[in-house]
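Issue: ligand-bound run for 5-O-phosphono-beta-D-ribofuranosylamine - logging full I/O for the record.

Environment: standard queue, default settings, no custom constraints.

Inputs:
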Amino acid sequence: MANHKTRLAVFCSGTGTNFQSLYNAIDERALPAEFVLCLSNRSESGAIIFARQHGIPTIHLSEKQYDTHEEFSGAMLKTLEDHSVDYILLAGYLRKIPESVVDAYTFRILNIHPALLPNFGGEGMYGINVHKAVLEAGCRESGATVHYVDPEYDKGPILLQKKVEVMPDDTPESLAERVLACEHELYPDALEKLLLGSES
Ligand code: GRF
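Outputs:
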């Protein structure tokens, strides 16, 4: 269909700077996509506030709101179906995606991770922990990875990676800052690759 825009949902737990860079890239690069949903497990996350300010429907969905995991995953699936979501972009979402949702969206969920997977991924490897581990291991380079999501944490096929040099005087915080800046370029490149089959 002419002018069809791919319908994107973003899942966030925090500030949502990656979400913001994706949102801006759609406009700047004239990508054929639009955000139709921002889902957060936190009611007042920065991402939810940004979405509201930009007229994107938001939903606060947390497992705590449901008696069983099945009810929670069912509600998540129904929300995605209600908004006719084509792809889900995880951007700092600190919860595991229910298996029924991963099954329904096979190869249609992306995640960004602040390291060069398959290294420094898996359970507990989030936020500053990742950068501490990279420095403790004495790595000369780190970076960011965009990958498809499968039922295991940080294990799905890699779509795109970008390297960042580790400086001799880096602290976990200074490395985190440089990697985040890299993520803000990488995630839009990965989205472009997903949508157009190329990257800038
Ligand atoms: C990023 O480092 C991302 O790789 C990780 O969580 C952080 C989210 O930052 N999954 P933000 O909420 O996009 O600012």
